[in-house]
Design a protein that fits this description.
The chain is built from 3 helices and 5 strands. By secondary structure, it is an alpha+beta fold. The protein has one domain: Alpha-Beta Plaits. The longest helix is centred in the C-terminal third of the chain and has 8 residues. It is globular and about 40 Å long. Bound molecules: iron/sulfur cluster (SF4) (2 copies).
Length: about 80
């Protein structure tokens, strides 16, 4: 699992679940995502991510999702 934090949010990838369907790449409004040479999703422009959640919504294989670490930390208290 790879976690990419930015501010209060993090984008999380579970690459081994990714089948390279490209649905997340096509649905991202900010061109944050791409497929690598092995047809696995990668983040190419994390700084442009607006954490809209569309990639998580579209992925049929639970290979990409958002986390808000601040909220998780509060729940854990
Ligand atoms: S959360 Fe939104 S902006 Fe960020 S990678 Fe996913 S679809 Fe793109
Ligand atoms: S939608 Fe999911 S399975 Fe398809 S390319 Fe994106 S992360 Fe991979």
């Amino acid at each position: 699992m790879e976690r990419y934090p930015q501010g209060d949010w993090a984008l999380v990838l579970e690459s081994h679940r990714c089948k390279g369907c490209e649905l997340c790449v096509e649905s991202c409004p900010r061109q944050v995502l791409a497929l690598n040479e092995r047809d696995k999703v990668v983040i190419v422009k994390l700084e442009d991510c607006i954490f809209c959640g569309l990639c998580e919504l579209r992925c049929p294989d639970f290979a990409i999702w958002l986390e808000k670490p601040v909220v998780l930390a509060e729940v854990a208290r």
